[in-house]
TrEMBL record:
<keyword id="KW-0663">Pyridoxal phosphate</keyword>
<dbReference type="InterPro" id="IPR015424">
    <property type="entry name" value="PyrdxlP-dep_Trfase"/>
</dbReference>
<dbReference type="Pfam" id="PF01041">
    <property type="entry name" value="DegT_DnrJ_EryC1"/>
</dbReference>
<dbReference type="InterPro" id="IPR000653">
    <property type="entry name" value="DegT/StrS_aminotransferase"/>
</dbReference>
<keyword id="KW-0808">Transferase</keyword>
<protein>
    <submittedName>
        <fullName>DegT/DnrJ/EryC1/StrS family aminotransferase</fullName>
    </submittedName>
</protein>
<keyword id="KW-0032">Aminotransferase</keyword>
<comment type="similarity">
    <text>Belongs to the DegT/DnrJ/EryC1 family.</text>
</comment>
<dbReference type="GO" id="GO:0008483">
    <property type="term" value="F:transaminase activity"/>
</dbReference>
<dbReference type="InterPro" id="IPR015421">
    <property type="entry name" value="PyrdxlP-dep_Trfase_major"/>
</dbReference>
Length: 363
C-alpha cells in the first residue's frame, strides 16, 4: 500500500540518545530542557523572536484567538481543515466564510471588506498547502478596519516569502507539527508573533495561565508539549532541507508526467521558497475524481480529498455563507501521495493511471 503520506523518521539511535537524557533527568514535561532547546533552535531557523512549541496545531489557534481577545465575528476561509473553523466556534465566535481565489485557493482578499460588520474583530486566514495568502492586501484591510490577523500556517513550515519566514506575517501565526507535516514532532504546534507585548500572554495561556504555583493571571489551558515530542523535533529539524529537496523532486516528477489538459493545480506565489507540502490536483468534475480515486485505491494507492467538504457547508457552523468557488474546488480536489521515499516508478504509475482515467476513450 502506498499511503498519501508517510511520516519521516530520523535515525532510531539518535532518538534513543535523547530518550536516555529524559530518563536520566526524569523531566518529562512542563517546559523541560529539550523543549526549551527546540524552541531556541526553531527561533534561529525561522527568525521569529517570539515562538513557542505547544501540544498540537489546533490548541495554538485557540490560544491565538484568546491572546488577541477576539470576539464576535471572525472572517475566515471555507477551504481549510476543520481545525480552522472549529477553533473559532470553540472560542464562542462566529466564522464568517469568505470565498477563495480560484487560482491560489486562498481566501480572496477582494471579498473580505464586503463581509466586515460592526461585530467583526479578526481575520483568520489559511496559507493553503503552504502557499502564501495575499498578506499585503489583508494587512491593509485589517489596518483600515482595526482588525486582528491570525494566519493558520499549518502547512507552511520552511516556507519563505520575499526572503523571510512566512510565519512573520500577521499578529500571530500558528503551525502544526503533526506527524504528517514536512517537519514534525509526532504531535505539536507552533505559535509565533512579531509583537513583543504578546509574548508574556502566550507563555501564560499555554500553561494554565500561571507562573509558579501561587501566581495565576489567566484562565489558561494546558497547551504544553512533552520532552518526548521535543526530542523528535530536535532529531528531525536538521533534516528539513533534505526533506524539502526530496519533496521538490517528487513535485517535478508529477509536474512532468500528468496531463495538464485535464487537471489544474494551485498557482504558487512569486518570490516564494516553497516547502512542497502537498500535491493537490483538481479534476474537471467530481465524477472524474471519484473514478480516479477508485482506480488508485484498487491499485493500493492512497489519496485524500483534501480539503473536502467546503467548511461553510458543515451542519454545525452557526451561520451559512455561500462560497461557490470553494464548494466547487472542494468537490474536485485530490491530494496525491507525497513523502520522502516515494520512488519515481510509483509516481509514474500514479500519473499514468490518472491520465488514463481522465482522457477520452479513443474509438
Amino acid at each position: 500500500m502506498i499511503n498519501v503520506t508517510k511520516s519521516f523518521l530520523p535515525d532510531k539511535e539518535e532518538y534513543i540518545g535523547y530518550i536516555n537524557q529524559i530518563w536520566d533527568s526524569v523531566h518529562l514535561t512542563n517546559n523541560g530542557p529539550l523543549l526549551q532547546r527546540l524552541e531556541r533552535e526553531l527561533r534561529d531557523y525561522t527568525g521569529a523572536e517570539h515562538l513557542y512549541v505547544c501540544g498540537n496545531g489546533t490548541v495554538v489557534l485557540e490560544i491565538a484567538l484568546k491572546a488577541l481577545e477576539v470576539t464576535g465575528d471572525v472572517i475566515t476561509t471555507p477551504f481549510s481543515y476543520c481545525a480552522t473553523s472549529n477553533s473559532i466556534i470553540w472560542n464562542n465566535c462566529v466564522p464568517v466564510f469568505v470565498d477563495i481565489d480560484p487560482d491560489t485557493f486562498n481566501i480572496d482578499p477582494e471579498l473580505i471588506e464586503a463581509a466586515i460588520t460592526p461585530q467583526t474583530t479578526a481575520i483568520l486566514a489559511t496559507h493553503v498547502y503552504g502557499n502564501p495568502c495575499d498578506v499585503d492586501k489583508i494587512a491593509a484591510i485589517a489596518e483600515r478596519h482595526g482588525l486582528k490577523v491570525i494566519y493558520d500556517a499549518a502547512h507552511a513550515f520552511g516556507v519563505k516569502y520575499r526572503g523571510k519566514s512566512l510565519f512573520l506575517n500577521g499578529d500571530i501565526s500558528t503551525c502544526s507539527l503533526h506527524a504528517t507535516k514536512v517537519f514534525h514532532s509526532v504531535e505539536g504546534g507552533l505559535i509565533i508573533t512579531s509583537h513583543p507585548e504578546l509574548d508574556h500572554n502566550l507563555q501564560l495561556l499555554r500553561a494554565f495561565g500561571h507562573k509558579g504555583d501561587d501566581h495565576y493571571f489567566y484562565a489558561g489551558i494546558n497547551g504544553k508539549n512533552s520532552e518526548f515530542h521535543a526530542a523528535m523535533g530536535l532529531c528531525n529539524l536538521p533534516h528539513v532541507p533534505s526533506i524539502i529537496e526530496y519533496r521538490r523532486q517528487v513535485f517535478s516528477w508529477y509536474d512532468n508526467e500528468l496531463d495538464w489538459d485535464y487537471f489544474k493545480k494551485p498557482r504558487l506565489a512569486d518570490e516564494l521558497e516553497y516547502n512542497y507540502s502537498y500535491y493537490p490536483i483538481v479534476f474537471e468534475s467530481e465524477q472524474a475524481l471519484l473514478h480516479a480515486q477508485k482506480e488508485l485505491l484498487a491499485m493500493g494507492i492512497g489519496c485524500r480529498r483534501y480539503f473536502h467538504p467546503s467548511l461553510n457547508t458543515l451542519s454545525f457552523v452557526p451561520k451559512f455563507f455561500s462560497c461557490p468557488v470553494s464548494e466547487d474546488i472542494a468537490g474536485r480536489v485530490l491530494a496525491l501521495p507525497l513523502f520522502v521515499g516515494l520512488e519515481k516508478p510509483d509516481v509514474l504509475r500514479i500519473s499514468t493511471t490518472l491520465n488514463r482515467v481522465v482522457r477520452p476513450a479513443v474509438s
